[in-house]
Amino acid sequence: MATTNGTIIDAASNYNIPDIINKGLAYAILAAGILSVIFIIIGGFSFILSGGSEDKIKQAVGTIRYAIIGLVITILSVVIVQAVGQFIGLNVVKYLDLGDIFRNVQNLGETFSHSNSSGTGSTSLD
Known about the structure:
This protein is flat. By secondary structure, the chain is an all-alpha fold. It has a domain at 16-95. It has helices spanning 8-13, 17-48, 54-88, 98-117.
């Protein structure tokens, strides 16, 4: 039976395929949502800083439009993935915990920093 605790790396090291799929889909959905919001903000700044230029305004409005379309698709994907997941035994929505994802990213950062510090070369950019 699949476990629901641990990181995606723990699931991968244990070859726990359902957990890998669940966590991978959850992370992809969250990344898409976050990127959509970031592009809405970038488009808003572009619109404000356009200075009345028609081309810059059109580009900014296009950025906002496509970011909103991406956000709607991301929200719909959660519904679709949950519906399809019920038929094939996946439960992606329970992995959409932002705190868990931040802990996983922090653990990845610690893992990489430990692996870099054990090397013989200097990692300083000075």
